[in-house]
Specification:
Elements (H helix, E strand, L loop, with lengths): L1 H23 L4 E14 L9 H7 L1 E11 L9 E18 L2 E19 L3 E20 L2 E6 L2 E13 L4 E13 L2 E6 L2 E6 L9 E14 L1
Antiparallel strand pairs: 1-2, 1-11, 2-3, 3-4, 4-5, 5-6, 5-7, 6-9, 7-8, 8-11, 9-10
């Protein structure tokens, strides 16, 4: 009888270990979805009102982010794995005044190079990439539509932390900083389009960026 009990206990231990291993192991592929507040930084170009208060209010926006990574078996530093991937982030900033409004939309796409520290119940990651940023300001002046475009090369730096609550799903927080530069922009107004060189203003030079604090879900497969 004792042997049977020992065999039963051993079998239960093996089953528990297998369940634990399933809960803490993750796949090679990662797909994530995030959203949260975003802050526009640097210079505004082509907006309809350059007053200090208007610009400060326009800087507050929202962002959404999608990432895909392949976690290789190549370790760089101890537990850090090399992971190539791809990122898309969109953001929006809006404000209005008595004579018009601005609705800035920015879309950034880029391949990514990342490092992942993978532990039993959490991951940490650092990533960067060089891509392209599509900038549109669908503004209006005196109830007449006006469109500003400023599509430029941009790059990003990001850091993220994830807690895994199953073998496939985790909740994560991420900080993403996207940076770009421009000395001109395109304006379409009253059916005409022209290029405007960046004027000198109190915003400084042609550097602009936006930083986002994002929360979302990761799916491992």
């Amino acid at each position: 009888m004792k042997n049977k009990h020992y065999c039963l206990l051993f079998g239960l231990m093996i089953h528990a270990v297998s369940i634990f291993a399933q809960d803490t192991s993750i796949g090679k592929y990662l797909l994530s979805f995030h959203a949260g507040p975003s802050q526009y930084m640097g210079k505004f170009m082509g907006i309809t009102d350059y007053s200090n208060q208007y610009r400060e209010d326009l800087r507050n926006g929202i962002a959404w982010n999608v990432n895909y990574y392949y976690l290789t078996n190549k370790h760089i530093f101890n537990s850090w794995k090399f992971a190539p991937g791809f990122m898309y982030e969109g953001s929006r900033y809006e404000n209005s005044h008595s004579d018009g409004s601005d609705k800035i939309q920015i879309h950034f796409v880029s391949p990514q190079l990342a490092l992942f520290m993978v532990k039993e119940k959490y991951t940490l990651s650092l990533s960067t990439g060089l891509g392209y940023q599509f900038y549109k300001d669908k503004s209006s002046v005196y109830d007449t539509p006006r469109k500003v475009s400023m599509n430029k090369i941009a790059y990003n730096l990001s850091a993220a932390a994830e807690y895994l609550f199953s073998s496939q799903w985790g909740v994560s927080g991420k900080v993403n900083w996207i940076m770009s530069n421009s000395d001109s922009y395109s304006v379409r107004y009253h059916g005409q389009t022209w290029k405007v060189e960046s004027p000198e203003s109190s915003d400084g030079g042609g550097d602009f960026s936006h930083i986002s604090l994002l929360i979302g879900l990761n799916y491992h497969f």
